[in-house]
Write a structure and sequence with these properties.
The chain is an alpha/beta fold. The chain is built from ten helices and 13 strands. The chain has two domains: 1-214, Orthogonal Bundle (Pentein); 220-284, no CATH class.
Amino acid sequence: MLAVTATVLGSNSEVGTLRVVILHRPGAELQRLTPRNNDKLLFDGLPWVSRAQEEHDAFADLLRSRGVEVLLMADLLTEALASGAARIQGIAAAVDARRLGLPLAQELSAYLRGLAPADLAHVLTAGMTFTELPSSAEADTSLVRRMHHGGDFVIEPLPNLLFTRDSSFWIGPRVAITSLALPARIRETSLTDMIYAHHPRFLGVRRAYESHTAPVEGGDVLLLSRAWWRSGWASAPPRRARRVGAHPVRRRPGPHRAGGADRAGTRADAPRHRVHDGRRRTRW
């Protein structure tokens, strides 16, 4: 269990000294990708998982060698799930009664409530197939279960957890849980929310939007200074988001999937910004 430290958490700069970072090590959720589902789960192809893990480990070790404290999302999630309230929140977000039907949803929820924190964390990130769901006489009568193939997902995996910046961001001493627009990513924010709400490491951390989620994604926010930050949208901004940020900026969608504003520009150091103008040119 990570101890509660006296370190003041927060961020006022994109280029300041990094002290603490949350990473997600590639895992079983990426192994769920197949040629049938990779587009739906927002991957252009099938990743080389073992190579991705090697590269992640090397990157994490490099950060640690520079004095950065690396927090792994899987560890944070497992430790947060020691809380009964966190377990209820995570299971409620993962089990879709409208899609599964009430009997199967109740059966699935009861099974998940009996899992150890590490096993539950695995299911919440890697998902679960109908084959992996334990069988019972009541569940076997579910029409939804009979209509699905065994390899179909009763809980969808979250392979995009790799991009931890998207589901939350910090503005000064406050954290904001974001609103991920694409269906394949919506549940990611429930895990981030659970960690910040129930992990002892983050006790007392205030929310930038109190109990509400930020109407942008983390990759669409750029901290310019202690007083100013910039927000953008990969597509048309929602009405709720028009008041967000000091200087909103729209990014022109690309020919394939539109990326976040962090792909349109970023900060290199204190006086310099890198801007991509959408015409395969980069300006400094």
